[in-house]
Amino acid sequence: SQQGEEDPQALSIQEGENATMNCSYKTSINNLQWYRQNSGRGLVHLILIRSNEREKHSGRLRVTLDTSKKSSSLLITASRAADTASYFCATGEIIKAAGNKLTFGGGTRVLVKP
Amino acid sequence: AAGVIQSPRHLIKEKRETATLKCYPIPRHDTVYWYQQGPGQDPQFLISFYEKMQSDKGSIPDRFSAQQFSDYHSELNMSSLELGDSALYFCASSPGYSGYTGELFFGEGSRLTVL
Q1: b or e along A33-67 (b: 16 or more beta carbons within 10 Å of the residue's beta carbon)?
Q2: For B84, which DSSP code?
Q3: Taking CB atoms and an 8 Å cutoff, what residues of chain B touch A97?
Q4: Which one of B7, B10, B42 would you mutate to disrupt binding with A, by most A Cβ within 10 Å of its Cβ?
Q5: Who contacts B98 (Cβ-Cβ below 8 Å, separation ≥6)?
Q6: How does residue B98 score in pLDDT terms, banded at 50, 70 and 90?
Q7: CB pairs under 8 A between A and B
Q8: Percent helix, strand, coil in chain B (nearest 5)?
């Protein structure tokens, strides 16, 4: 079963509105990350939040993490048409000398209409 | 800035054929990861290498094999291809542990179509 599952699966909003998507996971984590993927393209890292953090901001992005509920949310404020993409959460556990294997959730497809 | 380079970007094969995908990580990144993403699916971890040794293994079929070479590039070899192997294959890299923040850097992917 997947480590992370996202909600909603798809989201359609008007430009200027905020977009919120949620992610749940099942096991203990070291960090949780959000990635963006334009159709058929590579995954681009957006933001990382560590397990001892509760909230993090980066530009128009705000991420929260609730380890007691094993959930995270990504908020994109003042959305733009260029934000149209799929957004994935991924849970990671940094393993010394072996990197950080990520387990991805199902993704939320966001459509921002001009 | 240099990114992860994958080749080929597109590949079309027949069933039961063999395919090889290549990945060139960002310079000074010593860890490479391979992911498979089927149509409408989330990326699934296949395998990773650190300093040319396999560091972790996921849902990689026995028909697939991979290795990391002395220049840190990696190759994913897929044999006896099946229709279900049609997918986007991503390579990602990350730097050595000291100071590492946890972010993975992904290539643009190789799209494999099996007919």
Answers
A1: bbbbbeeeebbebbbbbbeeeeebeeeeebbebee
A2: G
A3: 50-51, 55, 96-97
A4: B42
A5: none
A6: low
A7: 82
A8: 5, 50, 45
Q: Which residues of A touch B43 (CB under 8 A)?
A: 43, 88, 104
Strand partners for B88: B37, B111
pLDDT tens digits, A34-70: 999 998 899 999 999 999 999 999 999 999 999 999 9
Interface test with B, best of A51, A86, A101 (most B CBs within 10 A): A101
Residue B82 burial (CB count, 10 A):
12
- Inter-chain residue contact A100 with B94, CB threshold 8 Å: yes
Q: In degrees, to the nearest 5, what angle opens at C-alpha B3 toward C-alphas B76 and B26?
A: 70
Q: Which of A63, A60, A51 is nearest to A82 (CA)?
A: A60
